[in-house]
C-alpha cells in the first residue's frame, strides 16, 4: 500500500525546507516518516493514511481541552464571522487580558503577541529597557524561542559568555547572554558575584519542558529569586509551556505553595492561552509594563497582536479550564498515565523515571530523574527511538525526540490511558 505520509513528505520537501515548517516535525532525531495530519478530534488525530493515533503532543501543548472542543469551536466560528483582523483594539483583548491576570497575580498588566518567540524576545527587551542593563542569565537546556540573543549554548566558563547555537547569529549578539547549568546554585552565586550589578534579568523555564521534564529545585528557585532581588535584576519566568498547563495559576503558583510569597517579575506565556491559535503574551507589574510603547521607551508592536479570532479561541479555552475541578481531573489522568508507564517499564526491567504536573509529563529511560541538561542527554537515545517507533506503529503519538515533554488533555479518557499503557508494556518488553 502506498504510504501517503511519505508521498506528502516527498512533495513537501520540494517546496518547504526539510518538508516542514518547524524542524522537530521532520523526525530527524528518531528517523522515519513524519505523520501528516488530516484531521483531529478530542484526544486523537488521523494521518494521511487514515491511521488513528492517541495524541500526547497536542500541538506541543496548546490543546489542553483536546481537539475540536465544541465550546471553543463555537467561539472561534462566531468571532470569524465578525472579521479576521482589524489592526485596531477590541473588547475581547481586554477580556482575555483580564482573564489571564485574574489567575496569575504576579502580573498587573499584560501585552498580547502572536508567538512564544515574540513574547520571550520582547520580555528580554523589556527587562533590558527597564533596568538599563544588557547582560542576562539563561540556563542550559531551557528554550525561550528562536530570537538571536536567546539561541545560545554555554561558553567555556563563567567569565566567557555564550556561543550561538545557530548559524546566522553573530557572536556580538550573544555576547551578553550568560548560560549556566540548571539547578546549580554554586555557579549561579558565582555568576552574580561576577556580573550581578550588570544583569538585566535571569530567564528560566520553571519546569523545563525543552529538556523533557526537569523541575527547578525549590532551593535553586529560591536562590534565583533572592539574588535577583538583591542585585536589582528581574526574574523572568518563561511559562510558554507551563502557563495554564501545569496549574490554573501556572508553574509560579506551584512554587508559591512551596516558597511563601514567591513571585517572578515578568511572566512569558503562549500555547494554552491561545488554545491552538497563534497567541502569546508577556506581563508583569504595572511600573515595568508601562515602560512599553506607547507609554514608555521600549518599542514593541505587531500587526496581528490581539487578533480577534485568536483571542476568542484563547478566552474560551481559559474559561473552560478555570471551571472548578478541571485541573484536579487533568492532574489525576496525567498521574495515572505516568504511574501506568512506570509500572509497565519496571515489569519489563527497563530503567525508567517519570514526573508530571497538571497536564504535562515527561519520562526518561534512566533509573532516576535528571536535574540538568547534561544528565538528560545521558538518556539512551537508540532505545528511546525504538520506543517511539514501537508506540507510533501501535497508534500512540509521543514527541519525536527524547528531550521533549508530553501533554495530556481533558479529552483523554481512562480508556485511552489504559490502551497507551498496554501498548507501552508490549514495546517495553521488546526493548
Ligand atoms: N518558550 C518555551 C518554554 C517554549 O516551550 C517555546 C516553544 O516551544 C517557546 C518559548 C517559543 O514559542 P513559539 O514556538 O510559540 O515561538
From TrEMBL:
CDD domains: OAT_like
Subcellular localization(s) per the UniProt record: Cytoplasm
GO molecular function: glutamate-1-semialdehyde 2,1-aminomutase activity; pyridoxal phosphate binding; transaminase activity
Pathway note: Porphyrin-containing compound metabolism; protoporphyrin-IX biosynthesis; 5-aminolevulinate from L-glutamyl-tRNA(Glu): step 2/2
Location of N6-(pyridoxal phosphate)lysine modifications: 271
Keyword Phosphoprotein recorded: no
EC number in record: 5.4.3.8
Enzyme class: isomerase
Cofactor(s) for this UniProt protein: pyridoxal 5'-phosphate
GO biological process: protoporphyrinogen IX biosynthetic process
Keyword Cytoplasm on entry: yes
Reactions this protein catalyses: (S)-4-amino-5-oxopentanoate = 5-aminolevulinate
Keywords: Cytoplasm, Isomerase, Porphyrin biosynthesis, Pyridoxal phosphate
Gene Ontology CC entries for this record: cytoplasm
Assembly information from the UniProt record: Homodimer.
Family annotation (NCBIfam families): hemL, PRK00062.1
Sequence similarity: Belongs to the class-III pyridoxal-phosphate-dependent aminotransferase family. HemL subfamily.
Protein name, UniProt field: Glutamate-1-semialdehyde 2,1-aminomutase
Protein species of origin: Limnohabitans curvus
Amino acid at each position: 500500500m502506498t504510504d501517503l505520509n511519505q508521498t506528502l513528505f516527498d512533495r513537501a520537501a520540494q517546496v518547504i525546507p526539510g518538508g516542514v515548517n518547524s524542524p522537530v516535525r521532520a523526525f530527524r532525531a528518531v528517523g522515519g516518516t513524519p505523520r501528516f495530519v488530516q484531521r483531529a478530534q478530542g484526544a486523537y488525530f488521523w494521518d494521511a493514511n487514515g491511521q488513528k493515533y492517541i495524541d500526547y503532543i497536542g500541538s506541543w501543548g496548546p490543546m489542553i481541552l483536546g481537539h475540536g472542543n465544541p465550546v471553543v469551536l463555537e467561539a472561534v466560528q462566531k468571532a470569524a464571522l465578525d472579521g479576521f483582523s482589524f489592526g485596531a483594539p477590541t473588547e475581547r483583548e481586554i477580556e482575555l487580558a483580564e482573564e489571564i491576570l485574574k489567575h496569575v497575580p504576579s502580573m498587573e498588566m499584560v501585552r498580547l503577541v502572536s508567538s512564544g518567540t515574540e513574547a520571550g524576545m520582547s520580555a528580554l527587551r523589556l527587562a533590558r529597557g527597564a533596568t538599563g542593563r544588557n547582560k542576562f542569565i539563561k540556563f542550559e537546556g531551557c528554550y525561550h524561542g528562536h530570537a538571536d540573543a536567546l539561541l545560545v549554548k554555554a561558553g567555556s566558563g563563567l567569565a566567557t559568555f555564550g556561543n550561538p547555537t545557530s548559524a546566522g547569529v553573530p557572536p556580538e549578539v550573544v555576547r551578553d547572554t550568560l548560560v549556566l547549568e540548571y539547578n546549580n546554585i554554586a555557579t549561579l552565586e558565582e555568576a552574580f558575584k561576577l556580573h550581578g550589578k550588570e544583569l538585566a534579568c535571569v530567564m528560566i523555564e520553571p519546569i523545563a519542558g525543552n529538556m523533557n521534564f526537569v523541575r527547578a529545585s525549590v532551593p535553586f528557585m529560591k536562590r534565583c529569586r533572592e539574588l535577583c532581588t538583591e542585585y536589582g535584576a528581574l526574574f523572568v519566568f518563561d511559562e510558554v509551556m507551563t502557563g495554564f498547563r501545569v496549574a490554573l495559576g501556572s508553574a509560579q503558583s506551584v512554587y508559591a505553595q512551596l516558597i511563601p510569597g514567591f513571585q517572578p517579575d515578568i511572566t512569558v506565556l503562549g500555547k494554552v492561552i491561545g488554545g491552538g491559535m497563534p497567541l502569546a503574551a508577556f506581563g508583569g507589574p504595572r511600573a515595568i509594563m508601562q515602560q512599553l510603547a506607547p507609554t514608555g521607551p521600549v518599542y514593541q508592536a505587531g500587526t496581528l497582536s490581539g487578533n480577534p479570532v485568536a483571542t476568542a479561541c484563547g478566552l474560551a479555552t481559559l474559561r473552560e479550564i478555570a471551571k472548578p475541578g478541571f485541573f484536579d481531573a487533568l492532574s489525576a489522568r496525567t498521574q495515572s498515565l505516568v504511574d501506568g508507564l512506570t509500572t509497565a517499564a519496571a515489569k519489563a526491567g527497563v530503567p525508567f523515571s517519570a514526573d508530571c504536573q497538571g497536564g504535562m509529563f515527561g519520562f526518561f529511560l534512566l533509573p532516576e530523574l535528571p536535574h540538568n541538561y547534561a544528565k538528560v542527554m545521558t538518556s539512551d537515545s537508540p532505545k528511546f527511538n525504538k520506543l517511539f517507533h514501537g508506540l507510533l506503529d501501535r497508534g500512540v503519538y509521543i514527541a519525536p525526540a527524547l528531550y521533549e515533554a508530553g501533554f495530556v488533555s481533558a479529552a483523554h479518557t481512562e480508556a485511552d490511558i489504559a490502551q497507551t499503557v498496554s501498548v507501552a508494556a508490549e514495546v517495553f518488553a521488546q526493548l
